[in-house]
Write a structure and sequence with these properties.
This protein is about 45% helix and about 15% strand. The chain is of the alpha/beta class. The chain folds into 2 domains: about 170 residues, Glycogen Phosphorylase B (Rossmann fold, 3-Layer(aba) Sandwich); about 180 residues, 3-Layer(aba) Sandwich (Rossmann fold), CATH 3.40.50. Strand 5, helix 5 and strand 6 form a beta-alpha-beta unit. The longest helix is centred in the first third of the chain and has 22 residues. It is globular and about 60 Å long.
Length: about 375
């Protein structure tokens, strides 16, 4: 049986790539002849995420749209180079279908595939679509969204092609076991675990706030331990090694499914992939949405879990001391109140699980939603 190629276009952050990887895993599970190629950005994070995976990837020179006039020359040159590369890749692979993962790196390949008449879909897991997805929505055959309210953010024509399926999450997140997770990270089985995670790139403001909370976290060492994914090149709790035995630092986590399996509570951003993983694993959370997005889409992502009682939202004050103070009033009371935590766990565990990855994979294979 000849190979059938599928191109997944996007990248620049783990939030774009991780849902795509979930769909890719389902695609090759359903069709042994399927070969997935990622057309990603040239950012180091994309190479780091994709290198251990069994999928080929092609970095593109495309860059984000500049905010200042002086950057437009280099942006246009990079986009033109990416458009020529996209033409070559689509012509060489003759893909059965193309899936845009969102962000600036999705544009060249999705546009070229649509022009060539290739079956083309678009993932939009955030509550509010970014500018790239709003533009690409006009060209694709189907749009896959996590939230029903997202439809209102697209034009009337695009809404007819929008399907609410959830956010794709790898099967491993539902299958990971706590005992394996405890051993993997060297944690204690007789302690509850707070997972602190700022996403694939880390979150400096969350890391710095945790530094301010170290005395209180140390006082809770008899009942709680902290698994802190700091992110590369981001500041981490500045304590001498061995002085905080209940705080375990991990710069980058390859096995996030195990991190969630170990967690009794998470402190994290509210990106689309993160909120989907929290829902898939039934993990209650304190969410600090990224505060610099113009559309504040992470706040809308977080609201879904908060309204269900599975999460509490704590606004990022953009200053370490103010964030630490806010978390003293939001996070610490949950750590100290077993009944309240149990209520959040029930709310998180009671959420409906969706087979988003399977839905999108079957559509790419020629099926219907």
């Amino acid at each position: 049986m000849p190979d059938r190629f599928y191109i997944f276009a996007g990248g620049g952050t783990g939030g774009h790539l991780y849902p795509g990887l979930a769909v890719a895993d389902e695609l090759v599970r359903l069709d042994a002849a399927a070969k997935v190629v990622f057309a990603c950005s040239g950012r180091p994070i994309d190479r780091h995420i994709l290198s251990p995976r069994p999928y080929a990837f092609v970095p593109q020179p495309v860059r984000p749209m500049p905010r200042r006039i002086r950057g437009w020359g280099s942006f246009l040159r990079a986009y033109l180079s990416s458009a020529l590369l996209a033409r070559q890749v689509v012509a060489d692979l003759r893909p059965a279908a193309v899936l845009g993962l969102g962000g600036f790196a999705a544009g060249p390949v999705v546009c070229r595939a649509a022009k060539a008449g290739v079956r083309t879909g678009l993932l939009n897991p955030d509550a509010v679509p970014g500018w790239a997805n709003r533009l690409l929505a006009r060209r694709v055959d189907a749009i896959f969204a996590q939230f029903g309210a997202t439809a209102e953010r697209f034009g009337a024509g695009a809404r007819k092609r929008l399907h609410v399926v959830g956010c794709p999450v790898r099967r491993a997140f539902a299958e990971a076991r706590r005992d394996e997770a405890i051993g993997h990270f060297g944690l204690r089985a007789d302690r509850k675990t707070l997972l602190v995670n700022g996403g694939s790139l880390g979150a400096a403001s969350i890391n710095e706030a945790i530094t301010g909370l170290l005395p209180e976290l140390s006082e809770l060492a008899d009942t709680w331990q902290v698994l802190h994914v700091t992110g590369r090149s981001k500041s981490a709790p500045a304590e001498p090694a061995g002085t905080m035995p209940n705080v375990h630092l991990v710069e980058y986590c390859e096995r996030m499914e195990l991190a969630y399996a170990a967690a009794d509570l998470a402190l994290s951003r509210a990106g689309a992939a993160t909120t989907a993983e929290l829902a898939a694993t039934g993990t209650p959370a304190v969410l600090m949405p990224y505060p610099y997005h113009a559309d504040q889409h992470q706040r809308l992502n977080a609201a879904v879990l908060a309204e269900a009682g599975a999460a509490v939202v704590c606004d990022d004050a953009k200053a370490a001391d103010r964030n630490a103070e806010r978390l003293r009033g939001v996070l610490l009371p949950i750590l100290r109140d077993a009944d309240r935590l149990a209520g959040m766990e029930r709310a998180a565990g009671g959420r409906e699980r969706q087979d988003a990855a399977g839905c999108v994979a079957r559509w790419l294979l020629g099926g219907t939603v």
